[in-house]
Amino acid sequence: MTIIFHELVGADSSRPFSPHCWKTAMSLAHKGLPFERRQVCFTKVPEVEGGVSRTVPVIRDGSQVIADSFMIAAYLEETHPDKPSLFGGEGGQAMARFIESWTNTVLHGAMRDIALMDIHNALAPADQAYFRTSREARMGMTLEQVAEGRAKALEALPATLLPLRTTLKRQPWIGGSSPLFADYIVFGALQWVRLTAGISLVETADPVGDWFERCLDLHDGLGRSAPAAV
Questions:
Q1: DSSP-H helix ranges across the chain
Q2: Rounded to the nearest 5 degrees, what angle is found at the Cα of 13, between the Cα atoms of 48 and 197?
Q3: pLDDT, tens only, 100-146
Q4: Best label site of 8, 103, 143, 146, fewest CB within 10 Å?
Q5: In the listed set 79, 102, 128, which residue is the last one of a domain according to the structure?
Q6: Could you tell me which of 153, 149, 211 has the C-alpha nearest to residue 178?
């Protein structure tokens, strides 16, 4: 049975940019499960699967509807234990929670400051209005004020990525000898900027850049199939 996968897009449907949705796309491909991508814009998310979630990704697997990228990964792991593991065991799942926390609290903040205006500009007009209102209320400043921190965020990025760089000097993947969900968590953040701002955040010679290029090529080039912003 084909899994229905609801993901976020802007005005250009060829660039589904949500970092959280990319975690789910890569997870489904990792498990080798057939899935149908259904694209939704910000203002239509409340209509997905009867309003089950305020955010996407959301999947429908038969009668089961699951929201949240980590919950989806855990569901796929539990229901398809015969397929390649996303966590490599219970300990790996617990450690992926730490990677998720670091990514959400540290890395996403840097990505937001770098790409926020690009994300806004990539949306259709109705979604731009929603995005501006909701984000400015959340951050207590205008999008333009946030964007003023772009140069500073780019300058600080090498230090921000230092834990990841140090790890990837010692092993090919965050997951060790092969990619796991932890890799997809961090990949989603860098893919977010690639698809909205079109910025090359790290050189290919950098361990992080090399890892990201290899992530783009995973699962028959799933990540690379979405063209970078120009």
A1: 19-30, 69-79, 90-102, 108-121, 125-139, 143-147, 150-160, 162-168, 181-196, 207-221
A2: 115
A3: 999 999 999 999 999 999 999 999 999 999 999 999 999 999 999 99
A4: 143
A5: 79
A6: 211
